[in-house]
Amino acid sequence: MATQLTGVSETLLIPLATRIMLTQLGDPIVHDPQAEKIIEKLQLDVSRFISPPKGISERLHIHGVAVRFRFFDQVVTRFLEKHPDGTVINLGSGLCTRFGRLDNGRCHWFEVDMPEVIALRRKAVSETDRHLFIPGSVLETDWITKIPVSHEQHYLIICEGLLMYFSRDEVNRLFSVIAENFPHAELATDIIGRVFVKHSRRHPHLPKTQARLDWAIDHPDELKQFGIPLTISEHFSMLDRQKERLGWLNILRAIPLFGKLYQFVDFRFDTYPNGHEGTSMHPGK
């Protein structure tokens, strides 16, 4: 019997399908054979999310998935090179295969997602003492209590294809609790611009799901409006990477609006100023 997903959970199939397509085409950047094995094992139907790169929307989508794949892989690789025993927390992990590709044999890795998604993951991938799955909403408090917290440990938080489905207030609260409970944690995420939300019906696959986009910003500096101390270490538009893949679409780089469509940012939470209480997710605080 084929597995069915709905709502935001269903959107995990979109990048999964594109990674599989690019892997099968021998793409020089995206190589994810484990993704193919997962959909076969789970009997996931991703055919409706696979389309040839004919139109501009399709080509931009494929380009975005490839840039996203490389960005998060590079962030994790750098983090583990600097902190081999560090902890990676993958929020809204979907059926991400990154641990299997980048595990250094020493890190600890937590996959956090809705119960139905974690149930799928457990059917396809085995947990280990260093690779653990936590069912629950990222916006609730339970997941954070299941991760050992030490101010001496190094943490990398991944929010891949996640925050754009939350409201601004939800993103604000999530960042606040992460900043307090994981001081100096690094967080890597992708962000969409307001024009992306406005024209989301033109996306080749998103309208096929029941999910709706919400939070959008046009520049990572807007993150500072949350009032949470942070330092941005890397930021770029998807059009700034893998330009050879774009071909004639590189002309879009001259139009500022297109540069805001889909961006990537890597930043570090700084220590709260004296007197800032924050909001703890730990019970009893």
TrEMBL record:
Q: Name one GO biological process term.
A: methylation
Q: Which Pfam families match?
A: LCM
What InterPro entries does the record tag this protein with?
Ppm1/Ppm2/Tcmp (IPR007213), SAM-dependent_MTases_sf (IPR029063), TcmP-like (IPR016874)
State a single Gene Ontology molecular function.
Answer: methyltransferase activity
Gene3D superfamilies, per database record:
Vaccinia Virus protein VP39
Hey, what's the signal peptide range on this chain? none
Q: Which UniProt keywords apply?
A: Methyltransferase, Transferase
Mind telling me what this protein is named?
A: O-Methyltransferase involved in polyketide biosynthesis
State the organism named in the record: Candidatus Kentrum sp. FW
Q: What is the lineage of its organism?
A: Bacteria, Pseudomonadati, Pseudomonadota, Gammaproteobacteria, Candidatus Kentrum
